[in-house]
Amino acid sequence: MKNNTYQEQFFSWAGLFALSLRLVIGWTYFSAFWRRMVLEDKLSPEVAGYVGEKFNHFLPNALGIKPLIEYLVSNPDKLEFAMIAFTIVEAIVGLFIMLGLFTRLMSVGVFSLAMGILLGSGWLGTTCLDEWQIGVLGLAGGFTIFLTGGGFYSLDDFLMCKNYAFTSKKWFNYLGSGILTIKQLKPLVLVFSLLIFSITLFTNQYFHGGVFGKLHNKSVKPKVEISNVMLADNELTFEVFRVEGADVYGSFLIEMQILNEKGEVSKSWNMNYLSKFPQEKINNYYVAKVKPGKHSLILPLGAKADLSVSLEGLPKSEIKTLKLIDISGAEWTAEIH
């Protein structure tokens, strides 16, 4: 009995020491709900800043979950449902973690949400590798809170002090707070800590080259992949996919060129044409859409589309290469078959 009292005190104090971590992590997730549903509406597909489009930005370089992301952004109705459900989960997990209610169960939620963020958007971040940091710190924070439980200043502790019957059940120690009765806890903590550290190092290297070799950041410069280039009946059709660059603004195409075998321009479309590019000649795949803007053709991060242009009157001998030119000066080319 005396030993149990000591252990209860130990976990109560451990939870207290993690209080600031619990509050901050809780708010980072609850604030997602607060931003999207209270301060503004970001869950309606029709509004600017729709969270589904931001989710689409994750697609090009996501790790392990790319097929899931592509499926959702290819199906707008399912994406909208998923974004609403995800936001509700973030709200519940964040609020319950801050309150310290079913703390250990919610810490598993924190760990899972952080893993999703890490795998999906860990490659994004123009200056500070923002999403990667959020992801790996969420893993470590979720695991730490699972170990400590809520402790003092938590609803779990309040319920236990009131001696509600369910708080004396063994399951409450694993889902709520209290004594964590796990055999060989010390080596298990070491193993899981090293696992989280390994995930941190691996993803840091995979996404950014941050452990060895050359550093890289795929959120800095725009990159567009051109594929499926086909010429039929004087109509050139090709696929564009924006795979790198900042997620907060698009790639702005200001010129398209057709080059001959000598590399000379045989036909071009300037920014005036691209800013009025016919919508019927754009076939978008995802919710992030290629579309004409005020001065250019805009390619948001993660957007994929088939584009068509007419080469009527241009001899085949003058058709060799397609070149796209971004306002930044970046250029991308593809052979025409």
TrEMBL record:
Chain ranges passing through the membrane: 12-34, 81-101, 108-126, 132-155, 188-207
Domain Thiosulphate:quinone oxidoreductase small subunit DoxA, chain residue ranges per copy: 207-334
Signal peptide start-end: none
Keyword Cell membrane set for record: no
Residue span, TQO small subunit DoxD domain: 17-173
Key words, A-Z: Membrane, Transmembrane, Transmembrane helix
Top-rank taxon, per record: Bacteria
InterPro entries linked to this entry: DoxA, DoxD, ThioSO4-Q_OxRdtase_DoxA/D
Name this protein carries in UniProt: TQO small subunit DoxD domain-containing protein
Species the sequence originates in: Capnocytophaga canis
Taxonomic classification: Bacteria, Pseudomonadati, Bacteroidota, Flavobacteriia, Flavobacteriales
